[in-house]
């Protein structure tokens, strides 16, 4: 495995609605890990994710993904993207949805069967996606992101609104995918999911507040959990004079 980061962001600036959302953000995401992108609503998580997958207009800075500029044609099959709202066709069955995306990406038909098993939808494979529960639809959307067998999987709030049992099963799957050598970036505003990640990137107001492993973050702050650690870091920044967090923190 190469030591080059899966994602390298340098001085990224993004405006939305006439105001800055990300201001000079720099970040490196290591390969073969589950990196949690955590922060409250409005912190800039979704904007950052869109920049990584190459669908966000940026003011300045660079985003390099797997050695290529974000959004490059060379990344078409190498990056899987799961949006917050399931991006699937309700009138198609689960299998038909995955077959459609497999054709788009040029993936073999055998990959569809593998992914249906992987996301635990075999019993619902022939049901229209529109008839499924919210949790099942999320798994179909995840399957569509996986069908190209990507090296990098970018998941925007994949567990929001799901019951604890389904959340646990999805996080178990994320860990299995990383163990196979894939890199996952998973955004969430649910701080208790932090312990399931290999590394955490805490965002606040469009800047990196911290980038650490869960254990290192707790040791650094002396906090009992990720939420308390996040609040501790905010308090420290404010006590230091209200300066913005270090935006140039990179993974080692």
Write structural notes for this entry.
The longest helix is centred in the last third of the chain and has 16 residues, at 164-179. The strands form two sheets. The chain has a six-stranded mixed sheet, with helices on both faces. The chain has a four-stranded antiparallel sheet with strand order 2-1-4-5, covered by helices on one side. It has helices spanning 45-53, 94-105, 110-118, 134-146, 164-179, 214-221, 226-239, and strands at residues 7-16, 19-29, 34-38, 60-65, 68-69, 79-82, 152-156, 183-188, 199-204, 207-212. It is an alpha/beta fold and 252 residues long. The radius of gyration is 18 Å and the shape is globular. A hairpin with a 2-residue loop joins strand 4 and strand 5.
The DSSP helix count reads: 7
Morphology call: globular
Classify the secondary structure makeup into a structural class.
alpha/beta
Largest sheet strand order: 6-7-8-3-9-10
Query: End-to-end distance, in Å?
Result: 15 Å
- Which percent range fits the helix content? 25-40%
Q: Tally of extended strands?
A: 10
Characterize the biggest β-sheet: 6 strands, mixed
Rg, Cα atoms, Å: 18 Å
In N-to-C order, the SSE pattern is EEEHEEEHHHEHEEEHH
Report the portion of residues in β strands: 15-25%
GO molecular function: ATP binding; ATP hydrolysis activity
Pfam family, one: ABC_tran
Domain ABC transporter: 7-230
Keywords: ATP-binding, Nucleotide-binding
């Amino acid at each position: 495995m190469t030591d080059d980061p899966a994602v390298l962001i340098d001085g990224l600036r993004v405006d939305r609605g006439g105001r800055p959302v990300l201001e000079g953000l720099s970040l490196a995401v290591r390969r073969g890990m589950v990196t949690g992108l955590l922060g409250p609503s409005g912190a800039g998580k979704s904007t950052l994710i869109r920049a990584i997958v190459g669908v966000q207009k940026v003011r300045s800075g660079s985003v390099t993904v797997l050695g290529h500029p974000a959004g490059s044609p060379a990344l078409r099959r190498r990056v899987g993207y799961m949006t917050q709202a399931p991006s699937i066709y309700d009138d198609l069955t689960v299998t038909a949805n995955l077959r459609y995306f497999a054709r788009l990406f040029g993936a073999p038909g055998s990959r569809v069967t593998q992914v249906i098993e992987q996301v635990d939808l075999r019993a619902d494979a022939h049901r229209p996606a529109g008839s499924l529960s919210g949790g099942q639809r999320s798994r179909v959307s995840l399957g569509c992101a996986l069908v190209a067998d990507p090296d990098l999987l970018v998941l925007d709030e994949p567990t929001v609104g799901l019951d604890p049992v389904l959340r646990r099963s999805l996080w178990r799957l994320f860990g299995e995918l990383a163990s196979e050598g894939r890199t996952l970036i998973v955004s969430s505003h649910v701080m208790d999911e932090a312990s399931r990640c290999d590394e955490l990137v805490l965002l606040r107001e469009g800047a990196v507040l911290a980038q650490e492993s869960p254990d290192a973050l707790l040791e650094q702050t002396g906090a009992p959990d990720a939420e308390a650690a996040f609040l501790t870091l905010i308090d420290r920044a404010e006590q230091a004079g209200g300066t913005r967090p270090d935006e140039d923190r990179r993974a080692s």
